Protein: Adenine phosphoribosyltransferase
Organism: Nostocoides australiense Ben110
Amino acid sequence: MSEISAVVSAHLRDVPDFPSPGILFKDIGPLIGDAQAFAAVTEHWRLRHQHRVDAVAGIDARGFIFGGALALALGVGFVPVRKAGKLPGPTVEKSYDLEYGSATLAVQRDALEPGQRVVVIDDVLATGGTARAACELIEEVDGKVTAFEVVLELAALDGRAKLSRWPVEALASS
Ligand SMILES: O=P(O)(O)OC[C@H]1O[C@H](OP(=O)(O)OP(=O)(O)O)[C@H](O)[C@@H]1O
Ligand SMILES: Nc1ncnc2[nH]cnc12
């Protein structure tokens, strides 16, 4: 196990039956509550994406926490991929299914300049529905997705199968 994988794994909390019965929820609370662990994640990604991206996109809501920190560390702008109905002005939207429900994501049409390179950030990759919708939205507003980065991958749910068009990196897997 790599050092960053061990740090992440040591700072995640399992919460059974949340938000609905049968779901084993992976809580990132302890990870972002620990300054050193949070910084280690951000620094790991900064080194991987430095000089390779023009913007960071984060997925509502937990992807905002990690993506915002990474954008600051890289010195690039941040693009929020928000739950629908929250962003003003013209948007593009996409509906999708996730492990415990369904939702719609939105991005502002003018969020990027054509061809800008974007790394998409989230906390958990489960079935992959959320991540695919987010990556497709970035492409719809003319961005180029360089990678999808996630803190934790739930490998048994095979979210990667929905993301074959983009490089996928997970800091830890369970
Ligand atoms: O791979 P999937 O099955 O699509 O699930 C992964 C998504 O589920 C969670 O988001 P949620 O919609 O619960 O939003 P939140 O961050 O606001 O809690 C998580 O933060 C991912 O975005
Ligand atoms: N099991 C899980 N834990 C945390 N976030 C999730 N998003 C989708 N499935 C999840």
